Amino acid sequence: MPKEPAEPVSHADADAAVGRVIAWYRTQLADEQRAAVPDQTRLQELLDGLAACLADQRHLEDADPDDLARIAADYEARLNDLPTS
Question: Which domain holds residue 48?
Fold first, then answer.
């Protein structure tokens, strides 16, 4: 069965979705860095995740409408899967 076309997503909406995940990573990094004994493994995982988000955000500049829709959907799902505390 053919895949249905994704709903159109604006560049601003895709950027906002990525930005919300970037904000989560930055908050987690700041919290971990303030810990009495920061977990170096967690810090590296957070830095790697943040770097991946920033790369995706840069990719938005050249993304076609299908990529924008995919990235926005991926990041909305990712945000929903991230722990809240």
Answer: 11-80
Give the model confidence (pLDDT) of 2-29 as tens digits.
Answer: 344 457 899 999 999 999 999 999 999 9
Quick check: 75 and 17 in contact, CB under 8 A?
A: yes
Residue 1 lies inside a defined structural domain of this protein: no
Q: Is residue 25 part of a domain?
A: yes
Q: What count of residues does the chain have?
A: 85
What's the CA gap between 82 and 70, in Å, rounded?
Answer: 18
User: Ramachandran region of residue 3, left (φ > 0), alpha (ψ -120 to 50) or beta?
Assistant: beta
CB distance 25 to 53 below 8 Å:
yes
Report how many domains make up the chain.
1
Q: Which of 33, 39, 71 is nearest to 53 (CA)?
A: 71
- Amino acid present at 30: A
